[in-house]
Amino acid sequence: MSLLVPYQESLFPMYSSGLFLIPAIHSFQRKKYFHSGLLIITSGISINYWRHASYGWRRNLDLTFSKLSFITFILTKYAIFESSNDTWVTAHIKLSNIVNYFLLSNLLFENNYPCWKYAHVMFHYFMTLEQWDIINSL
User: Fold this and answer.
1) What tens digit of pLDDT does each residue of 35-58 get?
2) Which letter does DSSP use for residue 138 in this model?
3) Rounded to whole angstroms, how far apart are CA atoms 103 and 64?
4) C-alpha closest to that of 12 among 136, 108, 132
5) Which residue from 22, 19, 15 is spatially nearest to 51, judged by alpha carbons?
């Protein structure tokens, strides 16, 4: 199967997928084992996909688990919103950063701009920050 991106370009999103292990360890230390396990699995699947980014079952698995993880953390965020330190404004700014960098990454990739990978890394970065905040609020 042909690669969607050259290996050198996939290194950025591959390594930044490892950022999800930071809130995974943090949630494990806080005895939030479901969230920890979900993040470890999601990070592993994502790293595995990006090391050889091509169409196929690994891509489908990555897309499925990343969406499952995203939905789980969004639902958790809104379930615990009253006990978190966020206001509605900051919560929506954080969420818009995540969504905007994800969409920007896709737009740049589809238009063959090589900087798509930096937008994807920023997407991973903001996801990691939000996951950390959510775990802290549990």
Assistant:
1) 999 999 999 999 999 999 999 999
2) -
3) 17
4) 108
5) 15
In 3-state terms the chain splits into helix, strand, coil percentages (rounded to 5) of 80, 0, 15
Contact status, residue 66 vs residue 50, Cβ threshold 8 Å:
no
pLDDT at 127: 96
Handedness of CA 49, 105, 68, 28 (dihedral sign): positive
Give the CA distances from residue 120 to residues 59, 83, 84, 102, in Å, rounded to whole numbers and listed in that order.
15, 30, 27, 6
User: Is residue 42 within 8 Å of residue 20, measured between CB atoms?
Assistant: yes
Taking residue 54's Cβ as centre, other Cβ atoms within 10 Å add up to 13
Token code pair at residue 114 = 């090589």
Instruction: Name, in order, each residue with C-beta under 8 angstroms of 50's C-beta and a sequence gap of 6 or more.
Output: 10, 11, 13, 14, 17, 62
Exposed/middle/buried for residue 39 (C-beta within 10 Å: 0-12, 13-18, 19+): buried
Contact criterion met (CB below 8 Å) for 119 and 19: no
pTM of the model: 0.91
